[in-house]
Amino acid sequence: MKAENLSVLLSKAVFFLLVFFPALMVVSGFSGFFWLNSYFCLAASVVISFFAFGKLWREDFALPKEAFVLALLLAALLSYPVLLITPFFPASADSAVSMTVSLLGEKIPLDYRPYFPLNFSYQIGFPLIVNAFSDVFPAMPVYLWAWLIGVVAGVLQLFGVWAFSRELFRSEKAGLVAGFLFFGTKLVFENLYNGEYSWLMATAFMLFAFCFLLKKSPMPLLLLPAIFFLNPAAAFNCVVFLAVIFLFLERFSILPLGLSLAASAPALYLNYAPIAFNIIAGNTKQPFDVSTGPYNFFNAAVILPPWIGVVPSVVFFALGAYFAAARSEFSKTEKMLLVSLCAGIALYFALGFMGVMLSGKVVEVALLSVLFLAASFVLRLNLGGRKLAASLGILLLLSLFFFSTSSILNHYRQGSKISHEESEFSVAFREFDPSLSSVLVISQGSGKISEFANKVSYSPASSHGMSHVRMLYYSGADYAEMMGRMEKQKEIVAGGCFECIRNAPVKYVAANSDYFRGKLDYPVLFTYKKFTVYLKAGN
After folding, report:
1. Residue 89: what are its φ and ψ, rounded to 5°?
2. What's the rounded Cα separation, in Å, for the pair 515 and 453?
3. Could you read off the pLDDT of 220-259 as tens digits, one per residue?
4. How much is the pLDDT for 359?
5. pLDDT-based confidence at residue 291 (cuts at 50, 70, 90)
6. What is the mean pLDDT of the segment spanning 281-303?
7. Whole-angstrom Cα distance, residue 441 to residue 452?
8. 404-411, Cβ contacts within 8 angstroms, sequence gap of 24 or more
9. What pLDDT was estimated at residue 296?
10. Which residues contact 94 (CB under 8 A, 6 or more apart)?
């Protein structure tokens, strides 16, 4: 098969996923309140996707072979920590997706029981996708399904950057340059390693939605609800970008896009209604503030360029200064991106100053603006042939250098939330009792151990199994109790609070001798290396 034909075939596969994942979320979301059957949801979504594919596919969407070569490299960089460093354990990922999927039985629940009596408020889109595949193919654990689909979402981001850049600048070379510069950004790796899978997928859909909006395709009507299904922060970023695009480039009809959000009604009810309720009720202050002092504008400014990515930031500043000094006029598209960059930076500082956790999400608006501006400035140099290839090669090598030497990425790659020994114990614990039973784990990686062992953690907020954001919950008292348990969990692991252990409403206590050297007056069920599992009396 010729490379061009293979590229078209692979492009069709990418396009199919852009239809299939949103369809699966919508079908599962609406049916799930009455009957959540993964076989039905998958079958219905495949049928809908094949029908929509035939109506919506256009040959001018096809991506070139270079995009798929870069995709292989990106997939390797995203996946190798779990494949090689922490074999088959996403050891830095949040536990939220696994916990959410464990709650999805015959219906979508309205609360987090048996974990905690709080309203169910996690972004439901990505867990519904994972649930469908893990139900039909249960041989692979839920957390690995989440990771694998997360890798796919990360690769889709690269394709989205390529497709949108190509359409934005009306140049195939623009897609190529933006694709290479994408490796210099840090957020795609951070989000995959940290388990921000829903954000990864939502950003990919956002980029494709902008691309298809410029192509005047109806695809945004399908992708926009999917973004709202997936992640509120990404939805906010999408609205910011849409406003700027509307003002500068494309006077598209807002009404159809607004009406399309009806397809995300399940997510609006579960995830967005609590936020709206708390805003109206004035419950916007975040208790249990994790900050260590007043907001430091200087520190926030210093970390921003590395957070965006050293290579695209340097290219943007260097070439931007060069063209500004030469009094070269900026194009309308570049002015649009400068406005979105200013909006992203302003929101980053303003939300950070107000203590709103969204400030760490809107950095993506600035990141994408810098990425596309840097690509535009490189295009202005009119490099071709060997000069362009050499320049892109140097940019890629520099990006890989900063990727490999990044202290924060290395921290995540090594496993920031659970050790290898803790991971091994969690598997042994799951094999001993695969049921969703309650447990108090006395070890540093308690939340992840509970996740990998398929257990209900005494502290569901540990390892971000449940969100720490107050605005997602209706009950302030239950939220305070959940966060209080997380503090008690820390006390127990630190070597104190025996009363907390006695009062913990759990079936099991699993103690790591590195953190708990005493013995409990409960029957010992089994031991594994440094771990002892007790059956707690009275449960």
Report:
1. -130, 110
2. 19
3. 999 999 999 999 999 999 999 999 999 998 677 888 999 9
4. 86
5. very low
6. 74
7. 12
8. 406/186, 408/186, 408/190, 409/186, 409/189, 409/190, 409/193, 411/92
9. 84
10. 194, 195, 196, 417, 463, 464, 465
Rounded to whole angstroms, how far apart are CA atoms 429 and 423?
10
Counted residue by residue, the chain has a size of 539
Summarised one tens digit per residue, pLDDT across range 409-433 is 999 999 999 999 999 999 999 999 9
The three-state secondary structure class of 512 is strand
Whether pLDDT at 295 is above 80 = no
CA distance 360 to 349: 10
* DSSP 8-state assignment for residue 330: P
List Cβ neighbours of 376 (8 Å cut-off, separation of 6 or more): 169, 174, 331, 333, 334, 337
Rounded CA separation 284/282 (Å): 6
The gap from C-alpha 51 to its chain's centroid, in whole angstroms, comes to 29
Angstrom CA distances, 74 to 91, 159, 185, 399, stand at 20, 11, 12, 12
Distance CA 159, CA 221 (A): 19
CB atoms within 10 A of CB 487: 14
% the chain with pLDDT above 70: 97
Distance CA 114, CA 116 (A): 6
Scanning the structure block, which residue is given the tokens 């070439």? 319
Question: For the chain, how far is it from start to end, CA to CA, in angstroms?
Answer: 63
Q: What is the pLDDT of residue 290?
A: 47
Nearest residue to 396 (alpha-carbon basis) of 47, 27, 70, 48: 70
Are 237 and 361 spatial neighbours (Cβ–Cβ below 8 Å)? yes
| pLDDT over threshold 70, residue 287 | no
> Radius of gyration over alpha carbons of the chain, in Å?
24
The pLDDT of 169-197, averaged and rounded, is: 97
Q: What phi and psi, each to the nearest 5 degrees, are found at residue 475?
A: -90, 115
Q: Which helix (H) or strand (E) holds 533?
A: strand 531-535
Per-residue tokens: 262: 């009806």
Q: Answer yes or no: are the C-beta atoms of 18 and 205 closer than 8 Å.
A: yes
For 372, residues 6+ apart whose C-beta sits below 8 A from its C-beta are 164, 165, 168, 178, 337
Pairing of strands 456-457, 508-512: unpaired
Q: Report residue 511 as tokens.
A: 């103690």
- DSSP letter assigned to residue 170: T
Domain ranges of the chain: 3-92+123-412, 420-535
What value does the mean pLDDT take over residues 138-167?
98
- Phi and psi dihedrals of 535, rounded to 5? -90, 115
C-alpha to C-alpha distances, 207 to 7, 61, 331, 361, nearest whole angstrom: 20, 13, 21, 16
